[in-house]
Fold these 3 entries.
Entry 1:
Amino acid sequence: MSRNPVSLVVVVVMVTISFAASGSERLKSTELDGVVTDLNDTRVLMAEVEAVDTKYKKFVTETDSEGTFAFLVPPGVYRIRAAREGYCESRRAPVAVTGQKSLKFSFQLIGCPTVDYKPSDDDLTNYTPRPEPSPRYHYDDVRPVTSDGLWPVVSYGKREPEGTSIRYSSLVVGTRKFPVIYTFNMLTVKADDMVYSTLDSSIHATGHVVWETDRTSQSGSAIRISFQGDKPKVNLEE
């Protein structure tokens, strides 16, 4: 489902709790680290980065003066997002943490108001919706939901149903175009255009395709992703 941008209101489970865990618990913990930038690739300081597990336990930290963050979480499935006041949140699909030493994430924040309202012309105390809301990424949680509790998330600018499929288009901010982003666990696909099939949960993405995992990155002209059970099958066209 799509979400409206919100300022994060979090119940903080201090990061120091993870670091204060016993030796055996720390050995099982995974460090989540990465960088938060804006659309100009400038590092964003004091951005909140939040990881929430399936029982709604939250681990929260804040980026430093270099826009970087790092914190420990125990094994589990986590939804991870980043936000700061004045920016729309950035999030990705749930990630399975299984005791890896570390997992790296990058977030890019788009500046936008918390609420797209403006004063009316005749009454400055009466606010009315802007005719054209500020451009931002929208998010769809799509199937399949695997036995591990994972599912894909699509970040997009425009969404159009086409029979048994959904076409997702790039986000346009001014004269700049930003890709549709498909995430599933540690898999990330970026492309200009993406079609998702509601029949078999497959996707076909075209235009400036970039396929990334935590270990590799490749580019091509098109990509197809289908599921065999819980596992995605990737076919990248050069």
Entry 2:
Amino acid sequence: MRRRRAFVTMLIVAAGIPVPRPPARAASAEAALVFVHAGQSLAALAPIYALRRPLGLGILPREPYSVEISKDAPGHGVEPLLDLPIDAAGRLGTGAVGSVPRDGEIRRAVRDDFYSAPGVIGVRFDSVAGAVPRAEVLRDALEIARARGVWLLGAPGGSEAAALARSLGIPVLAATDALDERSSTDAVASRVGTLIARARRTGQAVGVARLEGPAPAVIAKLLPAFDRAGVSLVPPSALLR
């Protein structure tokens, strides 16, 4: 049978008839979801862990459960990141750095923030109302991040932090969608739909949402939509290119 097939193929090629090829498989689409503002409650994590999908989790430093969560999250298939809070004036929001930081004060504060969440593998700047970190905060924090060997989750649309991180040799994963800019259930569902469409169109997408908002419940209901669309949920670090 194999010889017969080979003979037929030879005749087709000799006659100049193109041999049909199987269609190329489409590149798989992938998406990552990162929930932020963990640290104040263990109960708040139950809906996230119940999703049983790979996720990212931003952990605020120096909260009652920051250490415990950063150590336990990987056991649930969740990658822990450090949420560095930035106040409206562009300062570190932990209260450890004043309006005019002295030499080394920012670095010490950021080191302490990392010590309060020892299992983190990434970092993000959690800004109040889109505040931009002061230049000295940004550079000192990123240099500590580089020394810790972590990567940066950048804000949707790009940021000065992402540009500086790349210049320092820090891997950067850019978020593409803020899923709960508007906190209504319908608005979050619409943004999740946009995320899925983006992943199908470009190959990957990264959504960020608050832990305490409606996003966990909305995403739990929409998990079948990811599957139907052929979009795989992956750990955020899997999308670092």
Entry 3:
Amino acid sequence: MKSRRFRQLCSVRGRAVAGTIIAFMIARAELFDRDHTPQEDHFVHLHGATWADYERLLELRGDHSAPRIQYLEGTIEIMSPSGTHESIKSTIGCLVEVWCLEHAIEFSTYGSWTLKKKRKKRGAEPDECYVFGRVAAPKLPDLAIEVTWTSGGLDKLEIYSKLGVPEVWYWNAGRIEVYRLRGERYVRLAASVALRGIDLVELASFLDRPTTSQAIRDYRAALAR
């Protein structure tokens, strides 16, 4: 069964794409087997790719959060996040959840939810994403969070704008920037609309703690004052 599935994936175009992703995943595994965690994100870009190629890669990767796969009008990006990237995005997520709990806001976490629209020729996987309130079967997150740790990736705002994600936060060099969808383009705002009242400068100031648990304790104590 497995060999049949692999043969189906390996069409003339699919063979090259599948081979690339397999090699990329092996290289990533070898990096993590060493005595240190990679400090840079790693990107592979496949140009002239079809939507079917993109779907094959998602199927081949399976139900994993990495590598993350994006699609933008014929270009596939395969991104293997560094340990630092993953630590920052997870800690931001934890602090967002602390803020929501302190303010009695219902939320659901959806991690790197695969968002895609064939008609728009776009697909993306956030670092973290959230739905707020009680929504039985959400079609999109209310908030996507992205960490910019290594340059060279696709413009995910260009992808998200056509997918219809209403708000995106970008962490970059210690700051969190807010982008809100207006029509089909994002505008940068000084404050979040999805979580009104959250102080993102304050939240970001706790990301330098030596452990995530320390960041949570310190942030919770600050919110209680």
